[in-house]
């Protein structure tokens, strides 16, 4: 069957499209163990660039909040290009929602004093969880360190832990199952992770990955190296396969061949694409859960539907009170008359 005929069937919205999705998914070896109870989740958003984007972020947070995430975070853009927008988004979420909000913080290109001011603003706004990262050097620079600044993420973590209010601050750091692109070696990258955790970080959140075995081998190496802190896998539901492919090539994430086959021809079939994406992400989490992983960090891309669908498959759903439909005006009037 040609790619064009595939698109025709999938676009029709007919049973053929669902059958095609089923056939694609059947090519994967499915686990049989039921998903264990006690799954916990957290969500990551990216900062909006426009008023429309801000409304999208607010809707995303609103739709995912009933799932009871441990925390939500807002990332920086490449090279720290969205720092101001990130800080604004974090402040707004902390102010307008009941979510536990984590603020991303990078130290590249900033003095210790400047970094301290950002932390002060976070704490003043009710944000007591920081995702501490070195960050990417600004475009055109090879290093990005400045005089009077922190040398790296481990130095940044140590600096936060020296604050007078450090006991009230949670710190998460980054981890890289497939090795950071700029690391000298996998061992050097693992040593750096241990430095960050030994400096006082509470947990590590990984870069997204698609090969479950890669994460499990990384976790085994980390434990063998004496790392005992939680390492939370980063899960990226595939919202757009072409974009994910480009992004993965920049951050060193490998996309298995079976995924290229699975998503081929789905660009113009959004409903089937979403079904396949949610199932693949849920399968990834399910296979990790078989090995004792119960905590997952979702990179939402500010598109809540896929993440919500994946969480539903995992058994993470709103509490009963959040599922209740709001009363209509006539129902409310009738109840008030009765009372």
What does this structure look like?
- The protein is α/β, with parallel strands linked by helices and 339 residues long.
- The protein has one domain: TIM Barrel.
- It has 14 helices and eight strands.
- It has helices at 3-11, 15-26, 51-64, 83-96, 112-124, 153-161, 186-198, 212-224, 241-251, 257-263, 270-289, 304-313, 320-323, 329-338, and strands at residues 40-45, 72-74, 101-106, 129-133, 170-175, 203-208, 231-235, 295-299.
- It has an eight-stranded parallel beta barrel, surrounded by six helices.
- Helix 5 (112-124) links the parallel strand 3 (101-106) and strand 4 (129-133).
- Helix 1 (3-11) packs across helix 2 and helix 3 (51-64) packs parallel to helix 12 (304-313).
- The longest helix has 20 residues, at 270-289.
- The radius of gyration is 22 Å and the shape is globular.
- The N and C termini lie far apart (65 Å).
List keywords for this structure.
single chain; alpha/beta; TIM Barrel; 8-stranded parallel beta barrel; 14 helices; globular; disordered N terminus; disordered C terminus
Proportion of strand residues: 5-15%
Instruction: Tell me the CATH architecture.
Output: Alpha-Beta Barrel
Output the CATH class name: Alpha Beta
Strand order of the largest sheet: 1-2-3-4-5-6-7-8
N- to C-terminal separation? 65 Å
Helix-strand sequence: HHEHEHEHEHEHEHEHHHEHHH
- Estimate nothing, just give the exact number of structural domains: 1
